[in-house]
Amino acid sequence: MRFALAPKAVADGFRLEALETIDSTNAYALAQARAGDPGKLWVVSKNQQSGRGRRGRTWHSPPGNLAATLLVVADFELKLASTLGFVAGLALADALDAVAPQAAISVGPDGGSNFAAAGSGAFSSKAAAGNRFELKWPNDVLASGAKLAGILLESTMLDKNHFAVAIGIGINVAAYPDDLPYPATSLHDLGSKCDAETLFEALSEAWAAYARLWNKGQGLAAIRNCWLERAAGIGGEVAVRVDNRVIRGIFETIDEECHFIIREPDGNVIRIAAGDVHFGAVASASAV
C-alpha cells in the first residue's frame, strides 16, 4: 500500500512527498521551505533514522512506524505557531479513533478503564469516561497511560516578514523503543492491525478539518475546548520541570493561549509556557 492524501486534504490544496528512508522529516521539510516551497506539504516515511524530539532529544522510530511532517509557510503571527501542536494532537487523536477502533484501553480488575500504566500516575475522570487516546500537554498522545506518539514543532525564518513551521508527528505504529525512561506503546501492541499508510490518510483528513477550525488562530478558543475534552491529567497531581526547577501541584486547565495552569499546594497559580509534565505522585518524584 502506498501513502496517499485523503480526498478532503487534496481538495484543500495539500501535497504529499513520501520517502522510503529519511534522516528527519522535519529537517527535510524546513529545507524545502528555505528552497522556496509554498507550504501545505506533507513529508512522510516509514523509516526515519535521525528523528528529533523536544529540547534536542532523539526521537527513536523503528521501521514501520509513521514519521510525518506538515510544512506550513505562515501567514499568521509567530506567537500563534506553538498552538499548531494542539491542532496536530487533535487531528491525530481523531485519526486514531477512526482507523484503530480495536486498540481498546485495557480494563482493570474492577471492570473500569485502566489508564495508569506503570509509573504514569493518575489520569482524569474525563479520560476514564471513554477517551481511547488522550492528549498530554504539550505534545504527546497517550494510550492506556503510555506514550504512543509525539509532536515536535520547529520553525525557520524565510525573510524578515515570513517564517515556516514544520509540524512533526511521530507515531509508534509497528513498535516502540524499549530503552525509554517512560511507559510507551504501539498500535500493534494495543491490538490494532492498522498500518502507517492507513493512519496517515486519516491524519491528513483530520488535519484539514481542524486546520479550518483553527483558521489562522481565529478559532483557537474552539481548539482549546476540543483539546480539553481529550486532556490527560486534569484535576490530578502533576510535576512540571521548567529548566532547573520542578513545580508540583494540581493541573487545573490550559489558558486561552494554551499555556499549562498548575495550582501549587499553597494555592498559588502558575502559568507555564514550556516544560516537561509528569503525572501522579510517583511520576512527580521522578521529575526531580
TrEMBL record:
Matches recorded under Pfam families: BPL_C, BPL_LplA_LipB
Keyword Ligase: yes
A Gene Ontology molecular function term of the record: ligase activity
Keywords (A to Z) from UniProt: ATP-binding, Biotin, Ligase, Nucleotide-binding
Keyword Acyltransferase annotated: no
Domain BPL/LPL catalytic: residue ranges: 1-215
Reaction equation(s) it catalyzes: biotin + L-lysyl-[protein] + ATP = N(6)-biotinyl-L-lysyl-[protein] + AMP + diphosphate + H(+)
EC number: 6.3.4.15
PANTHER family cross-referenced by the UniProt entry: BIOTIN PROTEIN LIGASE, BIOTIN--PROTEIN LIGASE
Protein name: biotin--[biotin carboxyl-carrier protein] ligase
Annotated organism of origin: Aquamicrobium segne
Species classification: Bacteria, Pseudomonadati, Pseudomonadota, Alphaproteobacteria, Hyphomicrobiales
